[in-house]
Structure formats: structure tokens, C-alpha cells
Amino acid sequence: MQDQDLGDDLPVVTNDLTPPVLPPSPAMPPPIPGPVRHPLQFTGRAGEFFGIWFVNLVLSVLTLGIYSAWAKVRTERYFYGNTRLAGAPFEYLANPIAILKGRLIAYVVVIGLGLSAHFQVWVVYIPLILFVMLMFPWLIQRTLRFRARYSAWRGLRFRFVEGVYEAYVNFMFRPALQIITAYMVLPWVRMHQHDYTVTGHRFGGKRFRFSGDLGTYYIPFLVTLGLGFGVYVLMIVGVVAITALAETMGGGAGSNQKVPDAAMAGVLVPLVAVYLALLALPIYLRTKYINLMWRYASLGGHRFECTLRARDVIWIYFSNGVAIVASLGLLVPWAMIRLARYRAQHFVLLADGELDHFVAEAERTEGAAGAELMDALDMDVDIGI
Amino acid sequence: LNPFEATWYDGRGSRPRAARIFEPTPGTLRLESEGMVLEFERGATTLSPRLGRMPRTLRLPGEGHLELADTPALEAWLGGRDKIEGWADWLERRRTAAIGAGVATVLGVVGFFQGGLPWMANRLAPVIPAAIERSVSDQAMALIDRMHLTPTRLPAARRATLQEKFQALVGDLPRSADYRLEFRNAPRIGANAFVLPDGLVVVTDQLVALAESDDQLLAVLAHEAGHHEQRHGMRRALQSSAVVVVAGFLFGDLSGTGSLSVSIPVLLLESGFSRDFEREADAFAFTLLARKGQSPGDFADIMKRLSDSHGGDRDQGPVGYIASHPPSAERIAAAREAALAADPAPADDAAEADAEVDAASANAENENADAE
User: Less Cβ crowding at N or C end of chain A, within 10 Å?
Assistant: First the structure.
């Protein structure tokens, strides 16, 4: 799990046993003004956000969910506003009333789905779920548009301009090919989805560009496949070995009662290890793909650097999960802040000169219903800063 | 008022400019930046609500926005227009008030589920038309028949006898017209009995076989009659569908913490209702049996046999909270007590009963599952 950005040109080094041999001399002398590094800064604090999160929770419950629109806006504003780039914070500008309207529409659909499933009214449920599934790419496009429209930096808003047809190509037709090809085209599909997401965005009079290299998308995919297969083989070997061991021991000792328990425990250990590994592998792939997406993205002459490390992200997810369960949910705000801080620490804008020359573009309002439905259905658009 | 130092983004380009803003005449804001002077009507500008330590944003109509440090002076000057978020911010800054509100909310929600919802279901259940009870029951019965039951193998004469005795037991109850008694063979479920909301009582062949006497069977039937008289089936259906909907509304936004955190309390609440109903139906049965000159001890005997037949000595543990029925030991003890109260008879019988109660630390998860 070497860092992709470093390990790409070099053969993958197995371990950090030796200190770096080369002095960092090549980085020192550039006479040409290279890109200026603007790291993302995150200034949120868990203690402060706890108050906001807790009040959001209480007021949302007390108002039967009405306040949740305000809660969402305050949460987003907190995370946007505490993320600063080149000294200026990001801004989340959506209006709670617009969110509330979108949310009500989303609730109607979700409650319709929930009730018809609960009471097994398939006449309603099946057309409704099919409808939502067919709408999925359209919903993605709506979500991206809404999110871009209400995100701003230095007083200029983002925009998302890519069309619905391309959304269907990238989020329905291309993924459908995965099923025929046993998922062997997954890196190709993901790369085109990144292309769609990145090039659809505009900021400050410029369009984002994306120039992906399919080969680099296949590397983490093949690593994931290899690791998954290796873990699977290890599990089988482990289970067989332990069963055999238990049988020989059982034959020698002759006591019928103890050995099956020990054998059961012995079989469980590799099984649990395998399931944990299978949970971690998708996170590994996702993290690598987020890094790749930013690596191939550019805006004007500006480029990006996202250097998330898969093992860190896996550890953060895992320990956040344990902390949230152990604290009965009270550590949710801490976990959210922790993840946001980690992401910000590993994101850099490589600016080609000044950042003062972006200009405003024409604006139009966007409805929140699509974005809220995506939210309510727990479907996440993989933009991941 | 002193001028406030700010950073101005004009909304047309991304260049930040140092700026000063002040109110030279009441109702007019003047912005000075890099030799430019702009004036705005005070009412047309909006200051973003306070949030944590974040800088405030003052939106200027047509001229972008200003970023200002969050100070009390600024809040006193231009703030306080968004009442909702102002109030939220007040709460967010007072940890004790927020936690107090949280505790009050939890108590309120628990109080509603424990008190308000059962009360409402209790009021609503008698108003539900018989036709609905009938159609709900028919659907449920068709489903159970298809999945778990086969036609009874009891001889017709035996069935007739039991039906006669059942009619005698429930004949003078307020809802006596509803009662019907049917039998089914249920090899997989085993000894069991249940009542549907329209008064159809179903007894499995296995229960008839398990009972040592007809009196013991009548004791179970009296319990089922208790469910029907108190409309437990309808009340439970109303309560649990309300729990699903209300909990969805209240906690639907907590998607971050996962649906597990919601479904566990909901499960606990639903089984809590169910156990209360079982206790009520037991108490009803004890009174009815005593009135008919039969000892509630019969109920204890059949419960004992039921819990033994379902592998009696399972550990109580946390499962006790999730079980739909109260622990058998508790119900047997209650029946013995009722028997004693109804007929303060042989003392040696009671002593023996106590010993039995200790033995039967069974969990009533499966026995007698009322499929209302």
C-alpha cells in the first residue's frame, strides 16, 4: 500500500527499512518559478462542533425533522467555512428553506418506499423503486449541480454544466457493461465517471479538465483483486489447517467435549480476519481512486495533489466506527472532524501563479429535491475532496 | 461607530481587497476600499448567522460580500435578524442548556412511546370497524395457514367438546359474539395458541396433546379471550405501525449513525408493549377462571408444561428484554398467587408450586406466540 504518487515511477519498495538515500537536491534549485503550493487548511474543532451537532440533533427531533434543513445548512457551513484555501474559506450558500422543500419531496418518496415495503404493497413498491433506480443518473447530475451551485470561494460560485445524457452514459450504461465483463472494466468505468464529474465543474470562468491514464486506474484495481484473492486463499488454508490440527489433537486426547470448542474458535479467527480484510479492500480502492481523480484534474494552469494513504483512511474509518459505537454515537462529531482534518491535510492546490484572476459567471437557481433524495436514500456521490 | 476592518470580495473576481465599513448616517452603510467608496441601504444587506468561531459574512446587494471577524460589536450593530439560527447559536454556545434540552427530548420521546401512544391506540382500537378487523384477520390467517399450519387431525367429537366448553367460558363476555375456536396441526411451531383481532382463536393439535386436562386448555383459552376483550391485536398493530412511522420521522435524519440505532429501541419498545399485553391477558384470564369456578392454578400448570416442552432451562440474560412474552417463571408465579387468592386451599400444593417456579427459569420467547 505504497503511496501511489510516489510509488508510481519507482518499483514498489517493500518497506521503509532504509532512510532515503538521495538527498533532496533535485527539488532545491529550480530557477523557473514552479507552482505555488497552497495546502488546504482545516480549522474545525471537535469540541465546538459537538455543540452544533448536538443542538442540531435535539432541535431536529423536537421539530419532527423540520429543523433538519437548518441543521444540514449549519453543518455544511461549518465544514466549508473551516476549510480554507490560500487564506479564504469556502462557503456553503444553500438556503434552509430550499433544502426543506427538497427534503419534503424526498421524504414523500422514501416514506412511500418504506411503507409499501413494510406492508408489502408490491403494486406501489416495485414501480416506485424501479422509477428511483431509472432516475439515478439524473439524480446524480442534479446533486452535482446543486452542490456546485451553492459552493463558493472568494465570493465566486462553482457551477456544474455537464448534461443528463452523459450522466446516463457514465452512471448507467457503462456500469451495465461491468456485469457482462465480470467487473473487469471497473477501472475504465470509474475513470469515465471521474472525467464526467471533474470536467462538468466550472469555476471562475474556467472549466476543470481531466486527462486520465487508464493504466494507472488498473494498478490499484489489480492490487485489490490480488489482495482479495490472497486473503481468500489464506482463509481456506487457515481453516483447513486448524481443522486438521484440531482433529489430530482430538484423536490424541480423546476428550470429546473440549476440542470442538477450540476448533470452532480457531476456525472463527481466520474468518473474522478475512471479513475485516474484505471490508478494508474497497476503502483501499476508493482512496486510491480519489487520489487519481485529483491527480488528473486541472483548472486553468492549476493542478491538485491528493495524497490520502489507504492504511490511514482504513484506520480512521475503523477507529471512528469503534469510537462511535462505544460512545453510543456521542463521538460522531469528533469522528467527522477527524476525517475532514485528515482529508484537508492531504490535499494541496498547485497554483500556477496568482489566484486573483478568476471571474464570475452567470448564475441560475437550482432545486434541492434531487440532492435531498440522494441524501435520503443514502446514495453518495463520490466526489470526495 | 468605529469603522470595521474587513476583506471585500466583489463577486465579480477572486481578488480580495482590504476594506472598511461603517454607518455614517443611520440606515446607510459606507464601504471604503482602495480609494473606492460605495454606499448601501442598511436593510438591503444581510449578515450571516453566527456559527462557531467562523468569520461573519456581510452580503452587499450586487457587490459581493465582506468577510468580517465575529465580534460582539458587529453582532450588536448588524446581527440578530435570523431568529431561528440566532436561537440555535445561543443554544450551541451553552453546553448545559443543550444537554438539558437533549435529556428533556429523550424523556419526552420515551414518555410519548410509553404513555401517549398506548393511550391513543387504546382510544382508537374500539372505533375500528368490525369489517376491518375481519379482513385483517383473514389475511393474517391465510398467511399463517400457508406458511406454518396444516389441517387438524383431532377427531370431530373432541373438537366439538372443546368448542362447547369454550363457548361456556366466554359466553357472557362483552364481545362473546365474536368468538370462534379452530384447530390446526402445527408440527413445526409445536404447542401454541393465538387469537386474531376478529375473535378467531386457533389452538394447535400439539397444545391439545400437551394439556393434561381440558381445564388447562380452557386456562389458555381464557388468556386468549383476555387478548380479544382488551383489543390487544388491534392496539398492538396500531402502536407498532405508529412506532415505525414516528421513529422514522424523529430519527430519520440520523442516517449517519445508521438505522441500527433506531431499530433496536423500536424492537425493545414493541416487545415492551407486547409483554404488557401478555400480563394484562394473564390477569384477565385469572379473574375469568376464578369467576367460572376454575383455579388459575391450571394456567400455571399448562405454562409450566409449555416452557418445559420448549427446552425450559435457557439462560434469561438480555434476551429477556427482547422477548415478546414475560418470563414464564414470572407468569407461573403470578398464576399461583391468583390461585391462592381465589381459593386459599391446600398449603402443600402452594409449597410445591414454589419449587416448580424456581425450576422453570424459562424464557418465553417462543411459547404461546400470539400472532395477532
Answer: C
